[in-house]
Every structure is written in structure tokens, then in C-alpha cells.
Amino acid sequence: YAAARAMEDLAARVNRIIANVDDLTRQMTALQDQLRRAPANAADSAAAPPRQVLAELDVTLKELKQFKDSVLARPLPGLGYRQYPRLREEVQTVSGMISRPMMPPTAGELLRSTELGGETQQAQVRLDAIIQTHVVRINDLLKGTPHVLIQAPARTFVP
After folding, report:
1. From CA 140, how far away is CA 136, in angstroms rounded?
2. pTM for the complete prediction?
3. pLDDT (tens digit per residue) in 100-121
4. In 50, 53, 114, 128, which residue has its Cα 20 to 30 A from 5's Cα atom?
């Protein structure tokens, strides 16, 4: 029961990381569209040139997409059988194995659940680094009018 609950908590944590990536992606895509539609002469003289902000947005969006597609979740659900599982799918699989009725988890399942806890922590650290490196820079370039809201990091998972 304890192992199943720990996997449930881990799955929730992975889903929060993915939701945070999706939220940042939506906000930055909307900001990118807004800046591209803005007339060139309407730019605030105190703000960074839109080209600089657009370039930073482009780099950040590409990094978030690569992070999500290569680490967090399979990019195309319809072609999932052709791709190796990502963090979300691994957690779901191990959670299902541990939660099966009338069987205690095996040593291998417990080991993999601990490893997945570490991989989830690494994913959170990577997301935090993207936020601190790129998203904070975008907000700084926009001079006092941050357009990308950053959620507080989730509490640390201890396996």
C-alpha cells in the first residue's frame, strides 16, 4: 500500500511538471503572437526591442518542447508504440505493476520506483533551470511588466 501511494504521489508530481511546461508554453506562445502583431512604432521605449524578446521566446519554446518530448512524455500519442516510454509512461507502468492486487511489489519494481523518483527530481531541476535562465530573462527584457507567470516549484519528492 505504501509503495502504491508513493507511486501515486510521484505520478502527480510528474503531471504537475508537465502541466507547468504546458502552461509556460501557452503563455510564451501567446506573448510571441502578441509581440509579432504589435506595430513596430508602438513598442515601449523602456522595454527591450521586440526582436530580442522574440529571439529569447523562440529559444525557450524550442527548449521546452525538446524537454517535454524527449524526457517527460511521448510527443505523439497515436504513435506511442513506436517510441520508447518517457518519464510519465514509465511512472504509469511501474505504478500499475506495484498496484496490482494480492501481490507485494518486487525488489525490481521498488528499485525502479526509487530511480523514477530521482529522474523526476532531475526533471524538476531542469525545468527550474529553464525558468531561471530563460523565462526570468524574458521578464527582465520586458522591464517591469512580466508577461510570463511562474508557478512556485513543487515540493521535493523523497522516495
Report:
1. 6
2. 0.82
3. 888 889 999 999 999 999 999 9
4. 128
